[in-house]
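Notes from the pairing session

We agreed to fold both candidates in a single pass and log them together. This is the raw record for the first candidate, unedited. Please don't reformat it; downstream parsing expects exactly this layout.

Candidate A
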Amino acid sequence: MDAAESATSPPVSPPADDAEAVAFPSGLPGFPGARRFLLRSLATADGAFAELVSLEDPGLRLPLVCRPADGEIPAEDDLDEACRALGFDRERVRVYFVVTLEPEAARAWVNLRAPVLVDPAAGRGAQVVLADPRYPLRFPLPSRGRRPAA
């Protein structure tokens, strides 16, 4: 993102409750017109889930799962490179993955290829598409208490 793009991004309203206002100056893949969101933590036992709610279209809600602090996917090198390209401070960035829910099948999938990076201090975010094919687009979300095999 360049300075002109940053200057043309509309300001994000202050968040309500525990939500954080986040601007996505380049939009999100598949939703290019949605650029302003609230990031809300969801009340779950493990606190691992959140959602992005579009301020332009409140019906647009993306469920997210937080990357565990000890997470190995994506690799730190890939995250460092993505943060450098975006001008994000890697030390402040939180990493999320978009969740696709299949309620009728009681399944959920996580997109590991395109993490959502959020710099809460700057109020900016971006979804990056990683080139490495070892990151699947549809990875089954493990049941509680189970972790993916390394």
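Candidate B (folded immediately after A)
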Amino acid sequence: MADKKAPPNTIKNVRVLGERTKVRVVRVNEDDHRDWLQEAPVCPLLSQHQIIHAGIMEAYTPFNIIRTDQSGTFMLACIEGEGAILVDGAWKRVKAGQACLLPPFVANALKCVGKKPWVCLLYTSPSPRDRG
């Protein structure tokens, strides 16, 4: 997959998990009211490592997430399969054994590539403005 530039100003927030995608997550507290976090267990000890939530994702096509203004630093480590991440307007493939660290306040996107599941470890840490 060659890096392709996304047209400017055409990105909108999207969250498509698909029927087979599983995301298991633990969160630091109950302050985040997004629907996908509501059933997640709470672990206050995550705050010692400045982690808002952490988990594992097993994603299948049509998995697609687009964030226009990510609120915190996001880390993804690929364990199995392959996906693509939109960074700085270009799609970059992420395969098993590779990781990606994305800063807060930038547009980015995640999607599956191929038919195999994309299995990743994920965590988000607070942005500098959230740390006080």
